From TrEMBL:
Entry protein name: ABC transporter
CDD domains: ABC_MJ0796_LolCDE_FtsE
Keyword flag Translocase: no
The keyword Cell division belongs to this UniProt entry's keyword annotation: no
Keywords on record: ATP-binding, Nucleotide-binding, Transport
Residues annotated as domain ABC transporter: 12-241
A cellular component annotation (GO) from this entry: membrane protein complex
Species this protein is from: Mastigocoleus testarum BC008
PROSITE patterns: ABC_TRANSPORTER_1, ABC_TRANSPORTER_2
InterPro entries in the record: AAA+_ATPase (IPR003593), ABC_transporter-like_ATP-bd (IPR003439), ABC_transporter-like_CS (IPR017871), ABC_transpr_LolD-like (IPR015854), MacB-like_ATP-bd (IPR017911), P-loop_NTPase (IPR027417)
GO molecular function terms attached to this record: ATP binding; ATP hydrolysis activity; transmembrane transporter activity
Length: 244
């Protein structure tokens, strides 16, 4: 069932976003006048064919890149043209990231991997360890705190990555193909965690090329040729993605 969150505050607002690479004959508009709103507590996915602009949009939403022009409001702050230091601060304070590859440090335990975002936040060590353990318990890994990545399954490693992404209590959790390296059973386990996190109030935005994954989100945004073609698709609309 689709939750009606239209009365919730805006967390993400992209306004007339262009991202242009090159110039003249080599100019490429990776994003062409994109406007998109995500509200607090939403669970939405971004889809589209290769080269559609969905990854570029995610990089801008994640403050990993800046638009050529346009405005991007994250939690009511225009971050579009912030410098690298400001963007790094925004990323650490307001955003959590989960990627297809888990990006865990192999020499560190699960607990130590999850503490890393808090190192940059200058939290005391005891507080970092306590919060990391709490996050790991939240994703069902309370009994794996001292395991290193090579002692964990792919699904467990992704759970560690999710715990790391939420340990600073971000306003938005961004997931880029988070199930791409997982089998179908483990994919569902990870998606169940995303669903539980969203039900607890965390805003989740996910890039995926898999319709069966997107169907488990509340709203689907469809990109093509650098533009938003559809911004309010429901899971039921994904019967035939060739129509978009």
């Amino acid at each position: 069932m689709i939750n009606n969150k239209t009365d919730k505050p805006e967390i993400i607002r992209l306004e007339n976003i262009f991202k242009i690479y090159g110039s003249g004959e080599t100019e490429v508009k990776a994003l062409n006048n994109v406007t998109l709103i995500v509200r607090q507590g939403e669970y939405c996915s971004i889809m589209g064919p290769s080269g559609s602009g969905k990854s570029t949009a995610m990089n801008i939403i994640g403050c990993l890149d800046r638009p050529t022009s346009g405005s991007y409001y994250l939690d009511n702050v225009n971050v579009a043209q912030m410098d690298d230091t400001q963007l790094a601060h925004i990323r650490n304070k307001k955003l959590g990231f989960v990627f297809q590859q888990f990006h865990l440090l192999p020499q560190l335990t699960a607990l130590e991997n999850v503490t890393l975002p808090m190192v940059y936040a200058s939290l005391p060590k005891n507080e970092r360890l306590e919060k990391a353990a709490e996050a790991l318990k939240r994703v069902g890994l309370g009994n794996r705190l001292e395991n290193k990545p090579n002692q964990l399954s792919g699904g467990q490693q992704q759970r560690v990555a999710i715990a790391r992404s939420i340990v600073n209590r971000p306003v938005v959790l961004l997931a880029d193909e988070p199930t791409g390296a997982l089998d179908s059973r483990t994919t569902q386990e990870v998606l169940d965690i995303f669903g539980e996190l969203n039900a607890s109030g965390i805003t989740v935005v996910m890039v995926t090329h898999e319709p069966e994954v997107a169907r488990q989100t509340e709203r689907i945004v469809w990109f093509r040729d650098g533009e938003v073609i559809e911004s309010n698709l429901t899971p039921a609309d994904l019967v035939n993605t060739a129509t978009f």
